[in-house]
Amino acid sequence: MKIVLGVLGGMGPAATIDFFDKMVLNTSVDKEEDHIHVIINNNPQIPSRVKGISGAGESPLPFIIEGIRLLELVGASFVVMPCNTAHYWYDQITEQVNVPVLHIIKETAREIKDAAGTTLPKVLLLATEGTVKAGLYKKELDKRAVILTPNQREQRVVDNTIERIKRGLCDTSDYKLIQDLIEHYKENHMIDMIIGGCTEIPLMYPHLDLTGINPVDPTLILARAAIKKCGKKLKSQ
Q1: Alpha helices of the chain — where are they, by DSSP H?
Q2: Residues of the chain predicted below pLDDT 70
Q3: In the prediction, which pLDDT does 1 show?
Q4: What pLDDT was estimated at residue 237?
């Protein structure tokens, strides 16, 4: 039976493009027809996940469910959401849809734990305030990693940078702010890795000096998990 991947995107659009790009580039094919059939529902009008968690805005849950049901209707076999914060509602979502939904945070945590083995890596989590406060990564990496999160001032820098990426405004000044933040944690807290716990953050990786740090990319991990679930092989790296 042919497997069709559904992508609920728009959270934000650049991250959705990044997911699709990484999926295409990491699928092993001999010809064009070997690529995965993908249906993308790119809906930037889904309300803010961060405001939904804090209660400062409309809940995105009904919009997410509606978006996944639309993907079901047009033939998706399973769905991914290239947005970490949206997984705050994961259990409620999966209770109300009829297709499996891959969990970006669970997939990322599994890969980190497998790579770490018996060691306890020290990790800097760069994510939205909603993801950080909800403890989405801490829950999945409990006792398997030491997770450090930015202080209140630093978190404002991270959130502002994420919003600027969503608006297409990110520039060298933004990269420097994040670079300085990473350097601070590298020098003062001896971090082993960073988690780009918002799908906008990995878009910055090519512009940062990450020497000596393992930059974890949940978007890439989700793309690879989707490829394997579609029964395809990963391209050799």
Answers
A1: 13-25, 49-54, 61-73, 90-95, 104-116, 129-134, 136-140, 152-166, 172-189, 218-229
A2: 237
A3: 75
A4: 60
Token pair listed for 88: 């705050």
How far apart CA 172 and CA 94 sit, in angstroms, is: 40
pLDDT digits 0-9 by tens, 121-174: 999 999 999 999 999 999 999 889 999 999 999 999 999 999 999 999 999 999
CATH no., domain 5-104+220-230: 3.40.50.1860
Neighbours of 15 (CB within 10 A): 24
State the catalytic residue, choosing from 8, 64, 83, 136. 83
Domain 108-217 belongs in CATH node 2.40.50.140: no
3-state helix, strand, coil in the chain (%, to 5): 50, 15, 35
Q: SS3 for 200? A: coil
Do residues 123 and 192 lie in contact, with contact meaning Cβ atoms separated by under 8 Å?
Answer: yes
| Residue in 23, 181, 198, 222 annotated catalytic | 198
Task: Render pLDDT for 93-106 as a digit per residue (tens, 0 to 9).
Answer: 999 999 999 999 99
Q: Is 170 a catalytic residue?
A: no
Instruction: Please indicate whether residue 230 is annotated as part of the active site.
Output: no
> 3-state class of 78 per DSSP?
strand
The reply to whether omega before 12 is within 30° of 0 (cis) is yes
CB 91 within 8 A of CB 123: no
CATH 3.40.50.1860 domain extents, the chain = 5-104+220-230, 108-217
DSSP H or E stretch at residue 148 = strand 146-148
